[in-house]
């Protein structure tokens, strides 16, 4: 292979023009990409561009995706170590190329060693300003928002990194359609009150106010994951919450027992199959409390709770909780949107919504936000 002798190496601190996507500690060098849908974007001339990265993990290897001039270009697994990924090569030198490098894999709460750091770029061109998008959107959710099942065949049921994809989830589809920057905060199996297995530690609100409270361990702490998130640094026009699916599953699972204290936690059903009223009320209070937390940190953003891609079990409970919140706070800048449920034709890998289901969900959200934002 002919080596391009004109390539120059740049650390991120050497580059004036680039855009960071996703919550992170921007003082870090190299730059950590904690969340799915986080990444870096550049406009650059030249014939060739490489990105230099640092990767490690204990169990779940990070996957990434790239785009060139807003067209999906590649998707791949990254192995541990320091290396480079070619973003384009052999192109016309004068043309300005818009390039995106994004993390596919969600923040891995159960793999403290999982990390993806951007060290810089190598290219033979010039870095130019990156335009701001028209809107900013924040998406909060579980495995659906992590894009689990958007890659792979219907019969694929292994819980591994390659089946998660922020490149095919509804959040990216909505954002592309509305010319929006987006940020994701999601974790498979987690809920508003409890995880799918009744573990009350697995709730998104408890981690929402940190840069990436889902990334644990000493390494991630040094990378800034546990720092308080500066909500004023990036103000979303709308916040889309897609939680409740795992809370519904918890009602069908046995009690969770804390391995250290021996205490148990359980969301119960009555003998006739209905939700235990005390436990349902506990879930509704968690929804109302999370809305208050979101509003406290995002005073101007519209909040829309979306639900239904994997069933409608808690639709009434969520809307009751939202009505309770409205009554308590007089906040009318919120809404609820029911999404199309997954069918046999739209199912993906691991019994999760596939790409077709995400397309249908995205269409519903796009129409809602177009009216809201006058887009």
For the structure shown, list the relevant keywords:
single chain, 375 residues, alpha+beta, 6-stranded antiparallel β-sheet, 5-stranded antiparallel β-sheet, 20% helix
- The count of β-strands is 18
Largest sheet: 6 strands, antiparallel
Name the helix and strand elements from N-terminus to C-terminus, one letter apiece. EEEEEEEEEEEEHEHEHEEHEHEH
- Give the radius of gyration: 21 Å
Instruction: Report strand %.
Output: 25-35%
The average pLDDT value, as a whole number, equals 97
Shape: globular
Query: What is the overall number of helices?
Result: 6
Detail the poorly predicted runs. none
Q: First CA to last CA: what distance?
A: 48 Å
Content-based structural category: alpha+beta
As a percent range, the share of helical residues equals 10-25%
Layout of helices and strands:
Layout: E1 8-11, E2 19-21, E3 31-32, E4 39-44, E5 48-56, E6 63-68, E7 71-77, E8 81-89, E9 97-103, E10 115-123, E11 127-128, E12 135-141, H1 170-178, E13 180-186, H2 218-222, E14 238-242, H3 245-250, E15 256-257, E16 264-265, H4 277-297, E17 302-307, H5 315-329, E18 334-338, H6 355-373
Parallel strand pairs: 12-13, 12-14, 14-17, 17-18
Antiparallel strand pairs: 1-10, 2-4, 3-10, 4-9, 4-11, 5-8, 5-10, 6-7, 6-9, 15-16
């Amino acid at each position: 292979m002919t080596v391009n002798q004109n390539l120059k190496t740049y650390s991120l601190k050497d580059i004036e023009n680039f855009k960071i996507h996703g919550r992170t500690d921007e003082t870090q060098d190299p730059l950590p990409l904690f969340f799915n849908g986080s990444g870096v974007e550049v406009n650059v001339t030249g014939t060739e561009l490489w990105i230099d990265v640092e990767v490690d993990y204990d169990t779940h290897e990070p996957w990434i995706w790239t785009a060139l001039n807003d067209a999906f270009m590649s998707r791949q697994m990254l192995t541990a170590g320091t290396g480079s990924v070619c973003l384009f090569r052999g192109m016309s030198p004068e043309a300005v190329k818009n390039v995106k490098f994004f993390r596919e894999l969600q923040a891995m709460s159960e793999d403290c060693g999982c990390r993806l750091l951007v060290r810089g770029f190598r290219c033979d061109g010039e870095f130019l300003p990156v335009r701001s998008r028209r809107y900013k959107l924040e998406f909060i959710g579980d495995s659906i928002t992590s894009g689990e099942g958007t890659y792979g065949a219907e019969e694929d049921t292994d819980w591994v990194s390659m089946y998660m994809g922020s490149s095919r989830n509804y959040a990216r589809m909505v954002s592309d359609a509305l010319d929006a920057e987006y940020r994701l905060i999601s974790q498979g199996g987690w809920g508003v009150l409890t995880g799918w297995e009744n573990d009350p530690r697995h709730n998104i609100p408890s981690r929402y106010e940190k840069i990436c409270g889902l990334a644990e361990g000493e390494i991630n702490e040094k990378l800034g994951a546990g720092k308080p998130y500066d909500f004023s640094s990036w103000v979303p026009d709308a916040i889309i919450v897609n939680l409740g699916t795992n809370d519904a599953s918890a009602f069908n699972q046995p009690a969770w027992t804390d391995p250290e204290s021996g205490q148990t936690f359980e969301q119960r059903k009555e003998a006739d199959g209905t939700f235990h009223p005390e436990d349902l009320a506990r879930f509704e209070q968690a929804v109302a409390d999370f809305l208050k937390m979101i509003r406290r940190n995002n005073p101007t953003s519209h909040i829309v709770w979306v639900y239904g891609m994997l069933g409608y079990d808690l639709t009434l409970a969520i809307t009751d909780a939202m009505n309770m919140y409205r009554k308590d706070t007089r906040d009318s800048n919120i809404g609820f949107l029911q999404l199309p449920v997954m069918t046999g034709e739209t199912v993906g890998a691991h019994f999760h919504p596939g790409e077709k289901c995400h397309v249908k969900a995205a269409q519903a959200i796009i129409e809602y936000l177009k009216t809201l934002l006058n887009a």
